[in-house]
Specification:
globular, about 525 residues, 7-stranded mixed β-sheet
Length: about 525
């Protein structure tokens, strides 16, 4: 193959070398963001093969060697699941709503399915078993249990987490759902037109396009910024100020009110006045839907929509700093970007995407029972709580008991699980129970916080053991840098019989350093 590759040739070459599917879109991304240099040859876009080799060497084999040196040779690289693209690790309903701290479905499948290998030497669960997740989060385990033909129960202290999980695993009337969503979309279109937001944004986008094409050409600018030929920080600030004059003139021209009159809660603080008006209007339409299941799905779509429409930069969307009500230089995209003045485009996109994802899962699900209970896993009576919601599963559970647990407890001092969805709590009115979270960020990572964590997880396991079969299997996914899990096992009357150590490659945090987590396999002492 020539040293110059077309995008299609580069895709084929990379796929062959890496033994995984590298699409033309993947290659275009590398060009667009300056990872490899673009060559124009006879009007065709090409890249140098050696540039591509260098890029993938840096992020594949070199990373594997480096990480094993730092984290130990017992690192099971197969559990990195690096062969899967993001679309596969967020397949169907797993991307129904953003959620920090979830594990990927392939990890759940690995331990729940009936295969064995050099690391997993026995089968722990089989079809028709009941599996429990006392830290259910967004319901990944419930969904995979359904695919594998297993019954599953989730428990979560966050009412919103239970809300997400149950929408994923419930059955839906897709025809009626589409009709109701389209009605809301049509009404929202008219509402936005009346506000003149669309006209304003269209003119703003035209001005941004002209400005960015002139000062931030793709991919030349990114390539130069990546290599320090352009001082990105200095240049970005300079151009940000230059475009601000254009932005301010358009705000004045269309008489756009930026901030709301109050900042009492999250939705008051983090949204433009125009965006807030659309949110309130859309929610008023959702509340009129008579079918409760469809009303729930519409509610989760609106929650997902407003998360994407917060007044912040693209780079800070996952970790908010301060509201942004002006155009700004975006280090993520390498150009001047704008905040969102309207929810309409995201509502339309997520309405279609949500229905498609629910339908994809519906074709894979089995005729088994799954449910997430909102409650405190430290003391919940699973029988009583389940009997009110799913009598059939309760009857089954009493006859055969729960075979085991697959779960990922919160990490110490890493995430505030209620606060990450503050907008949804404001919107949907769920009761917050931040004080009952185990290991929340607001308690820190000090000695007292770690002791509280150990006690909390131990209490959960001791409570759940009452509902498990005698020969149970428990798998807990954790990054135990303080070596707390031996004590947790001891306090729970269990022993750690194995540990599976996996590299975590695709982290959302900006820190891309060597990082692993362990899957602790626990059994009863007796």
């Amino acid at each position: 193959m020539s040293s110059l590759l077309t995008i299609k040739q580069a895709s084929q070459f990379a796929s062959q070398c890496l033994n995984k599917n590298i699409t033309t879109s993947n290659i275009s991304y590398l060009i667009q963001y300056g990872r490899v240099k673009k060559i124009n040859e006879n009007g065709n876009t090409q890249i140098v093969k050696q540039d591509l080799v260098k890029y993938y060497n840096a992020y594949q084999s070199a990373r594997k060697i480096t990480w094993k040196k730092q984290l130990g040779n017992d690192l099971n690289w197969a559990l990195s699941f690096e062969q899967y693209k993001e679309a596969e690790t967020t397949k169907h309903v797993h991307r129904l709503h953003p959620y920090k701290g979830k594990f990927i479905p392939q990890l759940v499948e690995y331990f729940l399915d009936n295969h064995t290998d050099n690391f997993k030497k026995e089968i722990y669960f089989k079809k028709e078993d009941i599996v429990l997740d006392p830290f259910c989060g967004s319901g990944t385990m419930l969904v995979q249990a359904s695919e594998l033909g297993m019954h599953a129960i989730g428990i979560d202290i966050s009412a919103f987490n239970a809300f997400i999980s149950n929408i994923k695993i419930e059955k839906h009337n897709f025809s009626e759902l589409r009709n109701e969503l389209q009605k809301i979309t049509n009404s929202l279109i008219k509402f936005v037109i009346d506000l003149r937001i669309t006209t304003f944004e269209n003119e703003l986008l035209e001005e941004l396009k002209k400005f960015n094409n002139k000062y931030f050409p793709v991919p030349e600018y990114k390539y130069k910024a990546q290599r320090g030929i352009i001082n990105e920080v200095k240049y970005g600030i300079e151009k940000e100020k230059e475009f601000l004059k254009v932005y301010q003139s358009l705000i004045k021209k269309y008489n756009i009110k930026l901030k709301q009159n109050k900042t009492d809660n999250f939705i008051d603080k983090w949204y433009f006045q125009s965006t807030r008006e659309e949110i309130d209007f859309a929610f008023s339409l959702i509340k009129k839907i008579k079918n409760i299941e469809i009303k729930k799905v519409a509610g989760i779509i609106l929650s997902r929509t407003i998360r994407s429409c917060r007044a912040t930069t693209h780079a800070d969307l996952a970790t908010l700093k301060e509201p942004i009500f002006t155009t700004y230089y975006c280090s993520k995209h390498g150009k001047i970007c704008k905040p969102l003045f309207s929810i309409l485009s995201w509502w339309r996109r997520y309405s279609i995407d949500t229905v498609n994802r629910l339908q994809q899962f519906d074709r894979l699900r089995t005729e088994t029972h799954q449910i997430c209970l909102a409650g405190d896993s430290k003391n919940i009576d699973i029988f009583k709580s389940l009997e009110k919601r799913n009598p059939s599963l309760t009857k089954l559970m009493k006859s055969k008991k729960i075979k085991g647990i697959f779960s990922s407890p919160p990490y110490v001092g890493l995430i505030n699980y209620h606060e990450q969805h503050a907008y949804a709590y404001d919107l949907l009115g769920f009761k917050r129970q931040d004080n009952l979270e185990i290991g929340p960020l607001f308690r820190g990572q000090g000695k007292e916080a770690r002791q509280s964590y150990i006690q909390g997880v131990s209490d959960v396991l001791n409570n759940c053991k009452k509902f498990l079969a005698d020969d149970f299997n428990i798998f807990l996914v954790a990054n135990d840098k303080w070596n707390m899990y031996p004590e947790i096992a001891e306090r729970s009357g269990m022993k750690i019989v194995n540990r599976f150590k996996r590299p975590v490659l695709n982290r959302t945090e900006k820190d891309k350093g060597a990082y692993c987590e362990e899957i602790f396999y626990l059994k009863n002492l007796i």
